[in-house]
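If your schedule permits, I should be very grateful for your opinion on a structural question. I have a record of one protein: its chain in single-letter code and its fold written as discrete structure tokens. Would you kindly read the sequence against the tokens and tell me how you understand this chain to fold? Thank you for your consideration; the sequence and its tokens are set out here.


***
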Amino acid sequence: NRVFGVDGDIRITDKDRIYFQALGSSTRYPGSVAAEFGQPEGSLSGGVLDLTYYRNTRNWDILAGYTDISEDFRADLGYIPQVGYRSYYVTNYYSWIAKPGDWFSNLRVMGKVDNMEDRDGNLLYRAMVADFTYEGPMQSYVQARYKRFREGYLGQEYDQNYYHLDSDIYFTSNFYGAIKFVFGDRIDYANSRLGKRFQVRPGISANISRSLKASLTHTYEQLTIDEGRLYTANISQGKIIYQFNARTFVRAIFQYRNYDYAADLYYDEIDPQYRHLFSQFLFSYKINPQTVLFLGYSDDYLGAHDYGLTQADRTFFAKVGYAWSL
């Protein structure tokens, strides 16, 4: 897989600019890979065109974008998860800038229209979005968003409503808390039907000392359909960082995922329980301003309804990064 391209940033005036990116790719998969993943045989090539117009003033931010990705474009080492579509969007932001003594530091409203179609003109996604953002004392932040959208999936189109509330605040200079709520309609992609989703994600982060930092987040999500609860997901993650000095730190990450499925409501067979425990430990030492050494360890544990958490793999790794100055 070979990818080549050019990108640029053209400043038209002090307030207007255009970003562009044009990419091309040439790809040939081994026959076994093409057969297993439904890819074309032989060589294939494709391209990407991405344009964005941006206007920025004291109170207004206006963005308009267009993207065209061909069916046979591939970027297997890059983050382009979907190909074969055209899309456009227009977004407007208006901000109120605070004056000394105001009860807020920034207020912003946003409106957006978004449209995506496949290369044959079939609808993939069309949305109208509105949100309101408040920023105030103690670096507090609140965002409320509503989205009305229509999504195409496997030949069907689904009308959906999406609600989002996000808030965070620094209780002290060393202690931070956040919580996020998401609810509304969502497609059950495994069974091609519409359901109702509820998600809540609280999190905290603390500077316990000058050297020790820790954070903890938890995500709870449930999807229900007319027949009842389809699944419940719980994901917990903790991170600890200890900074010995300006050159050296160690970091530990733990993540536990716990999924419970109503297997009798799925069209295809599915395990009613899934458990996954991931851990990673990293040591970093900056040898000099241009050279960094990393040493690490990670492992995975898997479990299901008929067996407990069992180690699936373990990995030891070492890496040296060096920055050349030209």
